[in-house]
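User: Hey, quick favor. My workstation is busy. Could you predict this chain's structure for me?
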Amino acid sequence: MRRRMMKRTTKMADLGGEELPQIEESSEQPSTSREEDVEIVEPVKKKAKKEYGDGKRPEEDRLERRLNGILCCTVCLDLPKSAVYQCTNGHLMCAGCFTHLLADARLKDEQASCPGCRTDISRGNCSRNLAVEKAVSELPANCQYCSCQYPRSKLEKHKTEECQDRLTNCKYRRIGCQWRGPFHEHKEHEQDCCHPKKSGADITEALDVIDLKHKEELELFNHIFNLLSFEKIGFADIQLRPYRTDEFITRLYYESPRFTVLNQTWVVKARINNNDREPNLTVHRQISYQIILKSKVNTSIDMNFLVMKGPYDDVKLEAAVKRFQFSSDSLETDYYEFPLVTAAECNKLLAARNINLRIFMFQVQK
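Assistant: No problem, here it is.
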């Protein structure tokens, strides 16, 4: 390279031009690579993913909102909390709304239809969507106490065991303390609670309320236990089937086929909201039943009976023992309300094709 520059300088001098300055020879060897031309860029540090409860990025928020709109129930427009049903066209319904639609259709004597596409829906042609159920369980939801976000599958455990803002009762509530506040404040409250310092006479009233409730439960248990020692005991599994009255405005009622218990023939009937003309217009619904003796009797029959859910039914009934004395002049009992645990269980009964029950009958010996 130096020789080329010297020759070029000589030629320029011969042409009468000014001599170009000679390039000094550098002692450093030329680099074989062009590292000086390469721009070194520091690797971008990945941002740590924010866990649930610490917030989220705006794009994540938009994605969650889109998923909420896609996976929400077509009736209540909220994300399902348990089972998810879909019609034949794929519209989603949560278990509560699906049951409510079937119950309303039974009360109106109509065919239940999907609110999204008006196609017919029933227990037979609608199926559960397990993929949506799993997807919804992974979507974040706000804790009602601390407002942090957690996957729905872990939210219940957080609210009941981990959240420091969850509502907690004072451990002295059995002796009358009515305090109820955040979990992180309960220790401080219990240290300053005045109820442990009260005398026995002051806390007697609170203990009497607890004792009364326990006494009622114990009496019911002992009553059922005593009934099991009766000589004449019988039971039957029955199905209450829906029917309509022949009136101008038809009413829905249920009736079982005849069944035999203790050598007597019986029938069970049920009605909705005490034969209200339009029970579908009210949210509060109840089903009451009566037992009818179909056999002819010459003497009175004193009978205790206990109605329970059938062996293949999932309705939740509380224990309630009734007593009635049948005679030739009194063959029908009064109407007794089904002891349902919650009001939602009534819709579950109405949505079912038939109501499955098991009835125990205990004849009182004179």
